[in-house]
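Hello Y.,

Per our agreement to keep a running log of every chain we model this quarter, I'm adding this entry. I've kept the format consistent with earlier entries: sequence first, then predicted structure.
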Amino acid sequence: MLFSPLTLRGVWKHARMFFKPARAPGEPERDHPVAPPARGGEEVPMSTGKLLWLLAVAAGASVASLYYCQPLLALLAADFSTTERGAGLVPTLTQAGYAAGMLLVVPLGDTAERRRLIVLAALCSAAALLAVAAAPSLAFLCAASFALGLVSVVPQLAVPFAAGIVPAAERGRSVGKVMSGLLVGILLSRTVSGLVGAHLGWRAIYLIAAAVTLLLALALRIFLPRQEPALRLSYPRLLASLPGLLREPLLRRHAILGALALAAFSAFWTTLTFLLEAPPFRLGSDAAGAFGVVGVAGALAAPFAGRLADRIGTRAVNGLALLLVLVSYCVFAAASTSLVLLGVGVVLLDLGVQANHISNQTRILGLSADARNRLNSVYMAIYFTGAAAGSALASHAYASWRWAGVSALGIGLSLLGLAAFFTLDSGAAKEADAAATRSREAETFPHSRPAGDTLH
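Predicted structure for the entry above:
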């Protein structure tokens, strides 16, 4: 029957099979799997377009859990009788946990059946959300927040999954679609948590999120097709293979570009609630969350950024995106007393960070089909290390120098990103764009031989 996954027996069977070897060595990987016929109502075929939107919704709902705390920091500080720096530990540890999850959980997507892994990650996220909601002390909240970040890896499992169900020429577009859901989740998470926190208290949003996550786990189990990996490695060998991936210059380049941009992004959103609650604004957590709605404009441009990366190459998109981040912080520097300028800066910041991230992932997910999850794991671990560093540095900058310190920090991070863009493995990036252009031409003209992956 259709709802058989709801039964406890089905959930237990699903969890028990998690570490079962995926396939025999030498069996080829299907890079563009098709949803299998339904068996006993357990799997329901769905078109590729609808699957991408389901993955986008799941990515957005999961990543939102990492950002619910940001507009609630003033409420958390009051509830646990702590300082701004003490409350700032919550987003910092959440992002640090997420970076750890990138290294410890996401690589399993290269050796475990991927649908099963995505569903189990969603179930663990629901449990961690309940733990955060029940936190009796700041120390417990910090530990639960780290655990929440550790298991909230559905977005980074969903992106390689999406890249594996479309042709190479459409990879940027598919990544952009899933990433649009992810960024909408990041931005609206602040809006929703700010409103809920102002009226129901900060714990309520985590209880609501736990229920939504459980429903999404069910939908993912029913509709996603199985996606088997090609590799068969033990977990220690899988983790031991990660450092070697950093020998790939394009992975190093895009990870650093992403980390610096996200550090600037995280610096703004971590301290916005403190700025708005201080004179001259004197606004609450719901106002801080409302800025998430403004930033959705950047998220809506995500599919366009993906198509642009497919068309003109990732390097040009990276450069334009990092320039937008710099301009946004120049606007923020003049916005300490203006809500309008803050809104303009939010749109520019979110658009720049989103376009930069999509360009980065489009490039690294094309390096190797067999290592997509590990490549994404290394990239995202470095990426969210940047987010944790941005939160920590911004909390210190605001406590010491208020908004001027945060603005100076963001400008500095943006300039570092542009410096890395022009100097770090720039030649390899140019060659990769040229190879991608030849590959697109080969797919357009069948008599041409398509270019292969650059990493084996």
